[in-house]
Amino acid sequence: MMLLAIDWGSVGVKTLQFILSFSILVTLHEFGHFITARIFKCRVEKFYLFFNPWFSLWKKKVGDTEYGIGWLPVGGYVKISGMIDESMDKEQMKQAPQPYEFRSKPAWQRLIIMTAGVIVNVLLAIVIFIGILWTWGDEYIPVKNLHYGIQVDSLGKKIGMQDGDKIVAVAGKPVERVGTVAAEVIMREAKDITVERNGTQLTLPLPAGFIGQLNRNRGGGFTYIRIPMIIDSIGEKARIVEGTIAKGDTLIGFDTRTVHYSTDLQNMPMPLDKTVQLTLKRNGTDTVKAKVYFDNKGRDFISMKSPYQVLGSVKINYTLAEAIPAGAVRCKETLSKYIRNLKQLFTSKEVKAQDSLGSLISIGDAFPSVWDWTSFWTLTAVFSIILAFMNILPIPALDGGHALFTLVEMITGRKPSDKFMEYAQTAGMVLLLGLMVYAMGLDFWRLFRK
């Protein structure tokens, strides 16, 4: 039933998904640098998943390369001989260039090495999207299937929405899929939304500040799907103390509370180690009662039908040949949306950095509290695109900064001095560390604000 609260178990599941996803992304990104460096005969001194200041969790040297796992999960790195990078190895740079060093290679080879990680991340996202579409297809609930309408919270009521409304358009553009309204409002900086109420369409203006508040809600939370609570299955661990419950029964009462839709129990305190009386409608006409025990984690082991089961969904299946171009298109669309959102930080009056930026805490919290492979791989693909885009930005200390300096060298024929590269690398690292600390502070502030 819809009464489970997020506990430490769910936090653990989120953390494990984050670590696995982040490890895949970082390892393959660094592998892009590693393999191209080896192809061009550069010596790779270190290949690390996560950073390892002061000590490593594990390390092993094979040939010229030390492979290891650090303890600080904020990225990873490969240390290529003769390159000014995170290690800031100035002593090596004082020596005469060696044939196996990065700095002795032609500019075009160095450019490939520096952009290889980004390229791998983009290809990874495309491959993951292809796999998702080929394996699971694309399933969604059409807005037209919201037979019971939606429930709105205080933010929705401020703009004149009512429980039972159906959102049909944002800024005049029809909404096709359930769950996309908030994102569309923010990305389009919509001035109005259109709802259907009692068979009549109404256009509701969005006041100044609405998008900012919605963005502070992290893109969610002003409308909720509401459906009847229909019993789908009764687990072996379910303890029905009195009465009977059958598959297909509809919950209409929980203790002393009347239940019409799933949202009626949304903000109700969770019963812990307690027996609760349920009132159910059976066969559409009969009313029956049953007493059910909830354990000390609020579980009754009775499952309700999902919105997909109750409302019906559209399922698009793909062959492998169809999934390949569709996966590439989805990668392009995801990147386009991310760039638009990033652009809003500089152009929008309502979308503010302090409401949009997040650290590893926000990334980890994006994963579901139960293990779901579809969600896991979808988020991994999205984060792979974000990682690629952020790394290609022309900021010193990032791949894009190194690539920019190399392009300038290729155009002008003049290579930046080692001293300039040292200063640029230091400035870039200070900037990135500052942004990381700022984003981490925002996340902690949001946690305490809750």
From TrEMBL:
Pfam families: Peptidase_M50. It comes from the Bacteria. InterPro entries: PDZ_sf, Pept_M50_Zn, Peptidase_M50. Keywords: Hydrolase, Membrane, Metal-binding, Metalloprotease, Protease, Transmembrane, Transmembrane helix, Zinc. The keyword Hydrolase applies. It is a multi-pass membrane protein. It is an enzyme of class 3 (hydrolase). It is found in: Membrane. Its cofactor is Zn(2+). Its EC number is 3.4.24.-. GO terms for cellular component: membrane. SUPFAM superfamilies: PDZ domain-like (SSF50156). GO terms for molecular function: metal ion binding; metalloendopeptidase activity. The chain crosses the membrane at residues 20-40, 111-136, 376-399, 420-440. Residues 18-434 form the Peptidase M50 domain. Coiled coil: none annotated. Belongs to the peptidase M50B family. This is Zinc metalloprotease. It comes from Deminuibacter soli.
